[in-house]
Amino acid sequence: MQPAIPDGSLLVVDHSQTEVKNGHIMVINVGEDLLVKRVRRRVDGLIELISDNPAYPPETLGPDMMQQLRVVGRVVYFCRVP
Question: Model-level pTM?
Fold first, then answer.
């Protein structure tokens, strides 16, 4: 999530916020991957996972992947580690 959240930062995650809300940075589990991404729910019901780092293009989760999606929580705070 660089440049917004630098590598090695400590994250505070609110596990009670598991609803996908557009633009929020969320910790999500897709299959065996644990990711920190901005999320966006599209009008057609699909979900896009967006990284602030331009090296990683947005990913769209189709209906086949939706059953593997689990929102761990919303990132509410982060602390850069020197």
Answer: 0.88
What letter represents residue 44's amino acid?
Answer: D
d(CA 61, CA 40): 10
Query: How far apart (Å, rounded) are the C-alpha atoms in residues 48 and 53?
Result: 15
Residue 26 CB neighbours (<10 A): 22
Residue 65 per-residue DSSP state: H
Contact indicator for 41, 47 with CB cutoff of 8 Å: yes
What tens digit of pLDDT does each residue of 31-58 get? 899 999 999 999 998 999 999 999 999 9
